[in-house]
Amino acid sequence: MKVKTILVSQPEPKIENSPYSKLIDKEKVKVDFRPFIHVEGVDAKDVRQQKVDLRNYTAIILTSRNAVDHFFRIAEEMRFKVPDSMKYFCQSEAVAYYLQKYVVYRKRKIYVGKRNFQELVPLFKKYKGEKFLLPSSDALKDEIPEILNALDIEWKKGTFYRTVISDLSDLRNVYYDVLVFFSPSGIESLLQNFPDFDQKETRIAVFGNSTIDAATDAGLRVDIKAPTPETPSMTMALQKYINEANKR
Q1: Global pTM?
Q2: Sequence-ordered list of residues with C-beta below 8 angstroms from that of 226, at least 6 positions apart, any chain
Q3: CATH of the domain at 207
């Protein structure tokens, strides 16, 4: 069956000329964006109950823009003035760049990985005398604490925000040719919102092995997978599938 409509379970990209815009223009398909999950911050009282005292840490590990936002939100709620000497270890350049929303970049000690968390390990080893705080969500990837526990460093996780399933009841009678997922939480949201979901001819596109596993475990048929050597991005995977499906 041809592909004419796609629903991406994420917010619409804010940048102009995003890969999705190019896909829409080239393939003449309709692409809608709707977050299947969203983030809600926990309050300072909850963080204190986790025995997290911001005064005890000299370095912050930041894995996402959400982590940046909620660390500084909690600091404000706790009336904690973040010292200029605080070190920031950012998983990617995008996270480090986002940090500029809260600090003067050139005046701070900011250390940056390239793409994945593992690439921060040499930096953790170099600054092993620091006391690290990891502000995160309740759905932290297992590999992150595993990596940190394997190092001879002092660190603590604080749950500063939670991943919450969005209400999608208005989509109950809306049909899309392709549904696109980027996390196991997205799959969970689909099934919680629509427990009687019957896939039929709907194509499921997934990004990442953990999302593939979640979809398969849920009994869904996965039609489009990324990343692969041939299609390292989701938009490339969609483009390839659409080219093949719409020729029929």
Answers
A1: 0.77
A2: 205, 206, 207, 232, 233, 234, 236, 237
A3: 3.40.50.10090
Check: CB of residue 188 under 8 Å from CB of residue 165.
yes
In 3D space, the residue among 133, 90, 144 whose CA is nearest the CA of residue 115 turns out to be 90
Q: Is the peptide bond before 227 cis (omega within 30 degrees of 0)?
A: yes
Alpha-helical regions (H) of the chain: 19-27, 44-49, 65-77, 93-98, 121-126, 143-149, 184-193, 209-217, 234-245
State the residue range of the domain holding 138. 40-163
CB 110 within 8 A of CB 88: yes
Tell me how far apart the alpha carbons of residues 46 and 40 are, in angstroms, rounded to a whole number: 13
Amino acid identity of residue 197, one-letter, is F
**The pair of three-digit structure tokens given for residue 156, joined into one six-digit string:** 């603590």
Burial 21-32 (b: 16+ CB within 10 A, else e): eebeeebebebe
- Last residue of a domain, which of 147, 163, 179? 163
Instruction: Quickly list DSSP for 131-146.
Output: EEEEEEETT--THHHH
- Consecutive 10-residue averages of pLDDT for the chain (248 residues): 96 88 94 96 96 97 95 97 94 91 82 85 95 93 91 96 95 96 95 96 95 96 96 96 89
- With beta carbons less than 8 A apart as the criterion, state whether 59 and 148 touch: no
Three-state DSSP class for 8? Answer: strand
Q: Is 224 exposed, middle or buried (0-12, 13-18, 19+ CB in 10 A)?
A: buried
One-letter amino acid identity for 35?
A: P
Select from 141, 163, 185 the last residue of a domain. Answer: 163
